[in-house]
Amino acid sequence: MKSLIRNLSIGLALSIGSQVVVAQEPSADGDGDGIARVSHGGLHSLRGRHELDETQPAEPLKPIPRDRRPYPSDYIFQPPLIPHSIRGYELSTNANKCLSCHSFRRSVESGATKISVTHYATREGRVLSDVSPRRYFCLQCHVVQADADELIENSFKPVDSLR
Amino acid sequence: MKKLLAAFWRRLRSPSKAAAGVVLGMGFLGGILFWGAFNTGMEATNTEAFCSGCHAPIVAEIRETIHYSNRSGVRAICSDCHVPHEWTDKIVRKVQASKELVAYMLGTINTPEKFRARRAHLAHREWQRMKNNDSLECRNCHNFAYMDFSEQGRRSVKQHSTALAKGEKTCVDCHKGIAHRLPDMSGIEGWQ
Amino acid sequence: MSTLENVIWHILGYGTMPFIFLAGFIGVAAISLWLLSLGADKDTQEPDRK
Prior knowledge:
The structure holds three protein chains of three kinds.
Chain A: H1 2-23, E1 43-45, E2 48-50, H2 99-102, H3 104-110
Antiparallel strand pairs in A: 1-2
Chain B: H1 2-13, H2 20-44, H3 48-61, H4 78-82, H5 87-96, H6 98-106, H7 112-132, H8 136-139, H9 154-166, H10 171-174
Chain C: H1 3-38
């Protein structure tokens, strides 16, 4: 009985004492808000390397050149890139600002590149008398180019026939 | 009422016991105060807030455009384009606005569907007005004689140095939809 | 807007201009006369007439 009490008391003292020792270790909660922050190496992406739970400052918006010469195509059947800014150009069922310069009829006066004849055909290849509805919304395929570096450096070259 | 008018007229016709300077001074000051109050009141009907009271959806459309927010912060509000700047023309337009009050009371465009149905007609009225006055409201800020073609893009230079310079076309002939969304544009010259 | 409508609005618009001036004059006159009636143009006998 005596030895039991002795053993239990020693055990109790040791456990309490060891807790005091353990509490001195540095906690993972650096800023004291109750949430432990452990780095698992962060997220490494095109935006750089950041911790997942930190908010990064936003990138500045890339400028879009107001007006440039047409870009050469990079591959066959590429929808040509838009070399000018299209801010404010309405493209809706009411009005198609793109066609006001690029349609067959308007291109004579505007001097703009005509839309390709492929835009007058249905999916089955039947030719219509005006722009096919499936090609009416230009921006589904044609994009504007921003003045920016490549996201990933590359050595892409178009085929010989397009250079 | 008649007695009051008769008394008023009698007072106007009789000489005053006050000095001539006092009477003239009161008249002069009163004239200045009246003119200021009248024009201030009229300018209050030119503010964006006042127009939004009835035309809120149309005023909201301009928020996407370059006339609302741009690099330099120079902007145009409703009256800059839709109300003439000259005082006489402004009064004519304000008298004409009584037609809009009638339309308000009749509820001509008080639902989105009614507005959409009437939108083309309303747009045409404004385009016709601007064509008739040679896009005067545009030219209040955008003075053609001082356009620097070396600063403009290629397409702008080409368009501005031809039809606009010769006077065949005016600003609004091409720059439709610069501030608000467009109605159905089928059949309009220069579109598709 | 038709030419006729244009002409009608111009006539009405230019026609209101004299009314504006007239209304302004009457308003200023009424206020001025009222102010004078408080001072020099009192109806009752002035006690300190010289």
